[in-house]
Amino acid sequence: MLWCHKVIVIMHSRPSDRVGIRWLLPSLKVYYIPFVPIASGATLPNFFTFLPYLRTIPIREPIHHIHLIHAHAGLSSSGHEGILHSYMMGVHTVFTDHSLFGFEDAASILTNKLLVGTLRNVNAVCVSHPGRENTVLRGELYKQSKDDPPRYVIKRFLPGPPLSTNTITIVFLLHFTFRKGINLLVATAPRICAAFPNVKFVIGGNGPKMIDLLQD
């Protein structure tokens, strides 16, 4: 039986066990690019140093077998560069993001300026209405329509049969930072509880915005 991979993942290496190329059955191939992380799994901005690796991969993988290149997150320099160079190679690209970014601090200003150029030749997909509005503003996509896909749920993850109770439980698992939308939870949870006494929240996670949640 002929076996071939369907998805290729490109990410920075994680010495000493995540280096080189790995095949993960049944259909996943991972390229670990030799960029060394410096803190919290992040690497230094590597704009244009990623090009030799990105060019080599389509040579190894016939270009007509690559139908789509996907980049995720506005802070991924490899993702930005991958989108820009993929367009020159004639490969369709898509960008996704689910984090919310500000517009005042230096990191957000620089990242948003970079995003404006990157999103000129790519389809952007957002996972929520707040995320869509945030991406449209950051990327200056006022005249372009954004896709807001429905949330597909695998059958085995569907809720079980309702319990014999009137309590509604809302579960949040996230990193407590602004870009993950914790401020929306802090603002809306009290209103929901006031309007619906039978609602309770189960919240898991940690982060710098924990104090805002505890104070509320």
Automatic annotation (TrEMBL):
Sequence ranges assigned to domain PIGA GPI anchor biosynthesis in this UniProt record: 16-105
GO CC terms, sorted: glycosylphosphatidylinositol-N-acetylglucosaminyltransferase (GPI-GnT) complex
GO biological process entries: GPI anchor biosynthetic process
InterPro entries xrefs: PIGA_GPI_anchor_biosynthesis
Membrane-spanning ranges: 31-54
One Gene Ontology MF term: phosphatidylinositol N-acetylglucosaminyltransferase activity
Keywords: Membrane, Transmembrane, Transmembrane helix
Source domain of life: Eukaryota
PANTHER family, sorted: N-ACETYLGLUCOSAMINYL-PHOSPHATIDYLINOSITOL BIOSYNTHETIC PROTEIN, PHOSPHATIDYLINOSITOL N-ACETYLGLUCOSAMINYLTRANSFERASE SUBUNIT A
Stated name of the protein: PIGA GPI anchor biosynthesis domain-containing protein
Organism expressing this protein natively: Collybiopsis confluens
